[in-house]
Design a protein that fits this description.
By secondary structure, the protein is mainly α. 79% of the residues lie in helices and 0% in strands.
């Protein structure tokens, strides 16, 4: 019995712990974003993440109260699926696909290559569809004990697709990071770009590690539901990863030099880029006496501006 209940308990505790971290991340974003001018779509993305995670946390907690509260000691009550078909496969598929598509866009912005981002986006959509497929099966089965026997193929496709997508993201980010780092080494502005891309790589790598761990636990110990421990909280890791990236950029924007006029900047701007663009716009020439427009293009290339500012 302990081998069945402990993974569920650990999953719910981890879920709430990461939700607390996410709440702090969103609070920081809300406070800082009110002091800077940025595009509106990241605000919509943050609102979507927050609402989705609130729904996932509430539905998962309802099952936690039933399993470890009102139904404690009743094995039949524990075996009942409840809202798990919605809180785990459906919400995890939606939130993880959101995070993976965001990483695919960042990968396209960084590499300016359509092939790898398209592959990532395709795998993300496939694993999301497999998640809904698993949800329909879980709701039909109705019992936790029946999941390992009746859902092996579906769960393997879903968890495997999630792991493959995260591995593609982290390895591709690492490849383009090393490529940009070697080509732009020694530049102060390039160092800023390196720091930003490094954050993206670290968050993508963390997601891929947990996804691979969940798949390995399912394949090795699916009878004891050890895979549910990371599975319940996996979507929180994607949400926190997105918020870390958004906050890292919006905090940089907050500390940049003030810009006159009514221009609205992306939250993916950087302090050094903003200052140099402002000086070029006001003076028309760079500090070295070169043409301002030509120097601006050089700065954009050295900063990998497509990966920093977005499109």
């Amino acid at each position: 019995m302990a081998k069945l209940t402990i993974p569920m308990l650990v999953g719910h505790l981890l879920n709430w712990a990461l939700f607390s971290v996410l709440f702090v991340q969103i609070f920081i974003y809300c406070v800082v974003s009110t002091r800077v001018q940025c595009r509106r779509w990241p605000n919509y993305l943050v609102a979507w993440i927050f609402l989705s995670e609130v729904v996932q946390t509430v539905t998962a907690t309802i099952d936690a109260f039933r399993d470890f509260g009102t139904g404690w000691g009743n094995f039949e009550e524990f075996q009942h699926i409840g809202l798990m078909w919605f809180s785990v496969p459906v919400m995890t598929a939606i939130i993880s696909a959101t995070g993976q598509l965001f990483f695919a866009w960042r990968l396209y912005a960084l590499s300016d290559n359509i092939y790898m981002p398209t592959a990532v986006a395709t795998v993300a959509c496939i694993q999301a569809g497999a998640g809904f497929w698993v949800a329909a099966m879980v709701k039909r089965v109705g019992l936790v004990a029946g999941l390992p026997h009746q859902s092996f193929v579906k769960l393997t496709v879903w968890l495997g697709g999630t792991a493959i997508c995260d591995i593609l993201i982290s390895t591709s980010m690492m490849f383009y990071y090393l490529k940009r780092d070697l080509s732009n080494s020694g530049s102060r502005s390039a160092n800023t770009a390196v720091n930003i891309v490094r954050i993206v790589i670290e968050t993508a790598l963390l997601c891929s590690v947990l996804a691979v761990l969940q798949l390995a636990l399912y394949l090795a110990y699916r009878e004891y539901h050890y895979y549910m421990a990371p599975g319940i909280a996996l979507c929180k890791l994607y949400s926190n990863s997105l918020m870390v990236i958004l906050n890292s950029h919006v905090l940089m924007v907050e500390h940049r030099a003030p810009i006159t006029g009514d221009s609205t900047f992306s939250i993916f701007d950087t302090p050094s880029m903003a200052r140099r663009m402002q000086n070029m716009a006001l003076n028309g020439h760079s500090e070295n006496g070169e043409n301002g427009e030509h120097e601006l293009e050089n700065v954009k290339r050295s900063l990998c501006v497509r990966g920093i500012l977005g499109r």
